[in-house]
Write a structure and sequence with these properties.
This is Tetraketide alpha-pyrone reductase 2. Helices cover about 35% and strands about 20% of the residues. The protein is an alpha/beta fold. The radius of gyration is 17 Å and the shape is elongated. The structure holds NADP nicotinamide-adenine-dinucleotide phosphate.
C-alpha cells in the first residue's frame, strides 16, 4: 500500500487530504508544528484509521531539514503547509491613511 506525506496536517486542505487518504486505506504521514498540542492535532487522531495508519512528525518550514524524516521514502508528498508571515505593524491606522 502506498504511503503519502501531507504537510501541515492541521490545515484546512491538509486535514481533508489526510482523511481522504486514510479512507482509501493508505498509510499517511503528516507534519505539524507541535505534535503534543492535543487541542490542535487531536482531531487528526480521531479520523477513521488514524490510530493504525497515521504517523505524525514535527516539522517547521522555518527550520531547514525538519521535513526530511517525514518525507523520506514516501510515494508522494502533498505539500500544503504554508506560513502566514504578517509584518509587525503597530500603527495600522496611520499606514491606512497614507495608502
Ligand atoms: N483553502 C483554500 O480554499 C485554498 C485555495 C487555494 C489555495 N490554497 C493554498 O493552499 C495552502 C493551504 O491552504 P489552507 O487553507 O489549508 O491553509 P491553512 O488552513 O491556513 O493551513 C496552513 C497550514 O500550514 C501550517 N503552517 C503554518 N506555518 C507553518 C510553518 N512555519 N511550518 C510548518 N507548517 C506551517 C499551519 O500549521 P499550524 O496549525 O501549526 O499553524 C497549517 O496546518 C496555502 O498555500 C493556501 O494559500 C488554499
Amino acid at each position: 500500500m502506498p504511503e503519502y506525506c501531507v504537510t501541515g496536517g492541521t490545515g484546512f486542505i491538509a486535514a481533508y487530504l489526510v482523511k481522504a487518504l486514510l479512507e482509501k486505506g493508505h498509510l499517511v504521514r503528516t507534519t505539524v508544528r507541535d505534535p503534543e498540542d492535543v487541542g490542535k492535532v487531536g482531531f487528526l487522531w480521531e479520523l477513521n484509521g488514524a490510530k493504525e495508519k497515521l504517523k505524525m512528525f514535527r516539522a517547521d518550514l522555518m527550520q531547514e531539514g525538519s521535513f526530511d524524516e517525514a518525507i523520506q521514502g514516501v510515494d508522494g508528498v502533498f505539500h500544503t503547509a504554508s506560513p502566514v508571515l504578517v509584518p509587525n505593524d503597530d500603527n495600522v491606522q496611520a499606514k491606512l491613511a497614507t495608502t
